[in-house]
Amino acid sequence: MNLTFRTDAFEDAAAMRRTVFMEEQGFQSEFDNVDEDPRTIHLTAYDEGGRLVACARVFPSELEPGTETVPGKWVFGRLATQIAARGNGIGSAVLAEAERLAREAGGREMHLHAQCSAQPLYVRAGYAAYGPIELDEHVEHQWMEKDIRE
Known about the structure:
The chain is α+β, with helices and mostly antiparallel strands. The protein contains 4 helices and 7 strands. It has a 7-stranded mixed beta sheet with strand order 1-2-3-4-5-7-6, with helices on both faces. Strand 4 (73-81), helix 3 (90-104) and strand 5 (109-115) form a beta-alpha-beta unit.
C-alpha cells in the first residue's frame, strides 16, 4: 500500500486518536501538553484514495514528563490505525517514517511506551523492552528503545 505522510494535520490525528484510544479502547486521558508543543511532530498517513488510515506523534525526550532528557533521545507514541487498515504493515510504515523524521531532527535513539499487546510490532522493527510493565490507565505498557542512527 502506498501511503502519503503529512506533518501538518493535527486535527486528523486528533480525530483518529479519539476514535481508536477513547472510543475503541476506553482511554479517558488522550491529550496532553506534549500535543501543543511546537517541537512535537504529529504524523498522519493517508491511503491512495486520500483517506486517513493512521497517525502517531514523535518528540524530543524533554517533553515527556518523568523521562530523562538526553540529547538525541526522542519519544514515539500514540500510534493509531483504523480497524480496517490493521495488519497491512501501515503501523510499521508510520513508525519507520517517524524514525526518519526524528533522525532528521537530530535523533539518535527512539523510546516508546508500548501497549504490551503491541510489542511484537516494535520487536520486529528492532526495539527492545526495558523496565517494568506498568498500567497506563487500564492497559499494560512497557518502555522500549532502539538506536535509530543509520
